[in-house]
Give the backbone structure.
Amino acid sequence: MNTEKRIEVFLKLVLLVSLIVGFGSGCGTSQSELTFEEIDKIDVHSHIFDDVEGLAEMLERIHLRIINVCNRGTDRFVLVRMEEMAEELNRKYGNGILPFASTIDLVGRDEPEYAESVIEWLGKSFENGSLMVKIWKDVGLELKNPDGSFLMPNDPRFDPIYDYLAGQNKPLLAHLAEPLAAWLPLDPENVHYGYYSNNPEWHLYGRSEYPSHEDLMAARDSILEKHPNLILIGAHMGSMSHDVAEVAKRLDRYANFYVECSARTADLTRQDAKTVREFFIKYQDRVLYGLDMTRNAITGEQLSAEEQRAFVDRLEERYRQDFQYYAGTGRMEYRGKEIECLGLPKDVLEKFYSGNAQRLMPGLGN
Ligand SMILES: [Zn+2]
């Protein structure tokens, strides 16, 4: 064989091998062969409090709906304004592209008939289309009782509210605690390094006056136990995103517990892909998709036309990137690291991206 012939044979071999193993750093299409646009998608956890130009068009084009989650119970002006804006956006884009979830007033928690007034507020919100109710980490890690102790999420004052939600068949979206990293020394290798470097008030390492991660998980678990008919969706993988085995233990224990992956896909990419894939397959009826993108024109700045376009582009890019991780095969770059895609089967992807949310929130429709 002459040199040219040898080179030709070599190149053919390279081509063949690359076709077989999916050569290159990008993920291929999964065996499911569902494309990003084709699959019906619901982001169950983002906060869009701004009528961003081009957002609805983009969402329609990529077949994605966002559940717009109200998230401030400690400021009555913001609470009311968020609810109004969520309702307005839902009405404006009347095709169900921006449904919403309400939240619980926390200002009046020491007043008599607190639960009754919250229930009345939520009842109105449900009439106007709210699909679920959010509780945030300020309960457990920030708000105090008159005696100086932390207000915990399993405080008996919340019981009538949880019972009401169970009776109305409305899920509680519970962002309680923080990822475990909040209680550990700052580690540049950890996915949450940036957040805790920039938000030191939530970095609790060495601050023994705060409840521990374990205390908060136990408080959350006690709600699941006490209210077995309450659908509780643990936001951000139930704050156990460091280890899917921890999430699995709770899913095994509590039939009314679900999780969503918003703002924690990166945590999943850092774990063994085979283990995470098995987790998603085993608990295919219990895990929901979310992103946790925030846009707040109520308390934040207004965006220029150019910034609005950039926001919409970035949002689409992040949805595409997540889809590549969950649906694609091979390797990809995710937040600066080369990681392995999950290649989830088609039926699992469909439940994760929309089926589970539709089952838990019938108001979403099909
Ligand atoms: Zn959020």
